[in-house]
Amino acid sequence: MNPELRELYQDLILDHGRHPRNFGGLDGYTHKLEGFNPLCGDRLTVYLKVVDGKIEAIGFEGQGCAISVASASLMTERLKGKTVDEALALFEPVHQLLMTGDLDEEESESLGKLTMLSGVSEFPTRVKCATLAWHTMKGALSGKSDGITTE
Amino acid sequence: MDTSFAEAQEPVDNGPDAMDRVRAARADFPALNQMVSGMPLVYLDSAATTQKPLKVIEQITDYYHRHNANVHRGVHELSERATRLYEGARDKIRDFINASAREEIVFVRGTSEAINLVAQSYLRPRIGEGDEILITEMEHHSNIVPWQLVAEQTGAKLRVAPITDSGELMMDSFADMLGPRTKLVAVAHISNALGTINPVQEIIRLSHDRDIPVLLDGAQAVGHMPVDVQALDCDFYAFSGHKMYAPTGIGALYTRRDILESMIPWQGGGEMIRKVSFEKTEYNDIPHRFEAGTPAIAGAIGLGAAIDYLEALGRPAIEEWENELLAYATDALNSVPGLRMIGTARHKAGILSFVMDNVHPHDISTILDKEGVAVRAGHHCAMPLMDRLGVPATTRASLALYNNREDIDALLKGLETVRALFQ
Ligand SMILES: Cc1ncc(COP(=O)(O)O)c(C=O)c1O
């Protein structure tokens, strides 16, 4: 198989795509936003329950390709229990990872499992799939309520 | 100026030699001869846009090399040549779809623009509150949104005839929905998402029984089967050059002459006028009344060249070849475990939409791309159709005259990789 494909569809990505964690709506959420990728029709809704500046619970629902679902799943896993500031601070390095595929060692270490998404950078048409959940999370925490699109 | 410039055509033979010619035609398309991701390109996205034969590319280059000038304006040699070539392309289109007169052909940017023109120039002045426009569930956004705009502007209603799960128009429901308030019927000749060939003759007969005009969206038909607008007896026929081996940015709208004569101008500007003063403007005759501004001259010439190319190959032979491939591809895809065809109408053109268990179409197309196979994944500009069929998106392989069985075999091999990863 093409090595770039192997890099993109790592077992961890396939697993999260098939069995997404924190999948479903949330009771008592404080933030909710729908993200839409008009190019492929992917739609994800991200729910967050923030108490005293801390993300107590997070979930998402919707439908999408393996990359967008896996990225959302990994994101929810990572953000649960983090503060809002920590969550927002993750956006930039993740975005850079997805766009360019490389980060310095320190950043790379801080992203941990999320670096599994780096293969996306070789697929310009798929970057938006992987960033959708992150844009949606950022929009939700920034108080947006009317949905966002990746365009 | 003499604008009835049409080259004498060699009589086309459609015998067994014609099939051999079509089989060999792949070599006429330079873009097909390249590697993608280290694999030979297999282009199965012709419903989005076709590749262009060398003849078309050469005609466009030749025009810019030797004849470039504005049309209908100069008395100088180049302008006369450009005008003759441009108007010659109109004659070719007339012959190609068998319109009764060259004046019935309006150059537009493509199908979308053609439909918007009909919506604004024909329909808008003739429709009011409570009147209806009838379309079908399988339409492309280009055959939905222009009518929604008119409906918003006038208070008219858009009505949508249902389709079966296999992607065929329900003719009984369609007939029932034709009523005294129906002012226009607009239907795809061939569905871009399903490949369904609609029973347009029957649609037109039923509509004309009630004096309702019919627009056919011919974007997916005109490059793949013979089209005769007089035999069909349609009132409008819209198509794009780029889906029939010609450049982007050019297309044509056929409108029956008496209807076109009665239509108000659409866009204002040069070319579409006869005499202008600040008090009053006299409009030009048809078809120029609907062609404001400097047109896509090279595009029109390229479209004319594409028509010559198709006529020389022979459209019946092209249709037969594509039908053979469609049958081969349908059998091949049906043999893939976990794959479900979307669009299984009895009368189909070379468009194969499908979904696969546990894999999103977007992932399928990424994997295929890395195998050199270009297909399209998504809603195919038919979101209401996807909702109707209950799928978020499909993967679509679409055929053109230059495809062959090896292309289908490559697609199948790519789908094996998909299954290895996902199933
Ligand atoms: C059935 C159908 N109608 C309309 C269109 C719009 O054509 P264009 O984008 O060339 O205006 C297309 C092409 O995408 C089509 O397939």
Which features characterize this protein?
heterodimer; A: 151 residues; alpha+beta; Sufe protein. Chain: A; 6 helices; 44% helix; B: 423 residues; alpha/beta; Aspartate Aminotransferase, domain 1; Aspartate Aminotransferase, domain 2; 2 domains; four-stranded antiparallel sheet; 39% helix
Describe the structure.
The complex is a heterodimer of chains A (151) and B (423). Chain A has 151 residues and is of the alpha+beta class. Chain A has 6 helices and 4 strands; from the N terminus they run H-H-E-E-E-H-H-H-H-E. In chain A, helix 3 runs parallel beside helix 6. The longest helix of chain A is centred in the middle third of the chain and has 17 residues, at 84-100. Chain A starts with a helix and ends with a strand. Chain B is an alpha/beta fold and 423 residues long. A 7-stranded mixed sheet of chain B has the order 4-10-9-8-7-5-6, with helices on both faces. In chain B, strands 13-14-17-16 form a 4-stranded antiparallel sheet, with helices on one face. In chain B, strand 11 (273-276) and strand 12 (281-283) form a beta hairpin. In chain B, helix 1 (16-24) crosses helix 11 (315-334), helix 2 (54-67) packs antiparallel against helix 10 and helix 4 (111-123) runs parallel beside helix 5. Mean pLDDT of chain B is 95; it is low at 1-8. Classes of the chains: A alpha+beta (151), B alpha/beta (423). Chain A binds chain B through residues 1-2, 4-5, 8-9, 14, 18, 39-42, 63-67, 123, 125-126, 129, and chain B through 37-38, 358-363, 366-367, 370-371, 377-379, 383, 386, 392-393, 417, 420-422.
